[in-house]
Amino acid sequence: MHDHFELDPSVTYLNCASMSPMLKSVREASMAALELRANPWRMTKDDWFADSEVLRNDVATVFKTTGDNIAFAPSASYGMALAAKNMNFKAGKTIVVLDKQFPSNVYTWEHLVRQYDLKIVRVRKQDDKSLTESILDAIHDQVVLVAIPNCHWMDGSWIDVEKVSQRVKSVHALLVLDLSQSLGALPIDIEKVDPDFAVAAGYKWMLGPYGLGYMYIAPRWQHVWEPLEYSWLPRYKSEDFSKLTDYTELFKNGARKFDCGEYPMLSIRPMAVAAVKQIVSWGVDSIQSYTKSLTLIVNQYNESNGVATREHVGHIVGIPFGKRDPNAVKKILSAQKLT
């Protein structure tokens, strides 16, 4: 697998949770995209639209859904803002998030808390329960929204989002998922989980460029929700450049209505196409199995040192520092050329 990436043979890179290494195929796609950008007279309609649909359908394969349920976003926070725009809550209700959740999936909801006079509960893992069980305990009939990942970005703690979804539905609340730290590395059947909305950044486990991510909008909301912005590109028959001033209120099918402005992203989309094609080729199950073989080494280290490891996904694991000074640990690692 190392040979597929633009990595020096002497480098072992294990920080895909921050930013993925670059596939050789992605670099080749980026060079071709820049060459086309340098010669814009060569661009065709297919350069604008055809590859976007290829990407949409391949991303749908990773989500285990259809392309009609996928839209493009520049970031996870964009997706959260889209979801929040379409929510309206009564004062006094509760939003549930995780303690120390990544800020892209927090700031939007803190804004809603101020806007609608809501409460926010930050769930910590209880000592005698799993993180999933702790979340389930926090969901009651005053909860209107649960906004969580399916693994914690700090230590990979796994969350059974199917169980959470069932509990959320039982109290008639909404479920929003941030899959930035799992999509592409951890299998998910999004239609089985059935959240109202999900989003993932594309530059981590999806192995793509910075600036292009992916949204899932449940079919039940596609004709109800409004897009975050009103671009011409998601409009019906926008590919016919000769009729762009024949203004229409109609959108393209499904979640395409929610595509961000300039979603063809001509200079970086080809990189994403190459990246997701490789993920589909390898298979997410195989990727999870491979990464699990690596984090198993950390588990064995933890066990040999009497450190308990939380139930975690195969591609992210934590080593608790306890009372150690993180800065001191960082210096020790740096001295060993570990960054």
TrEMBL record:
Residue ranges of every copy of the Aminotransferase class V domain listed in the record: 13-337
Keywords recorded for this protein, A-Z: Aminotransferase, Pyridoxal phosphate, Transferase
A Pfam family of this chain: Aminotran_5
Signal peptide: none
Superkingdom per UniProt: Bacteria
GO molecular function terms listed in the Swiss-Prot or TrEMBL record: transaminase activity
Transferase is among the record's keywords: yes
Name this polypeptide is given: Aminotransferase
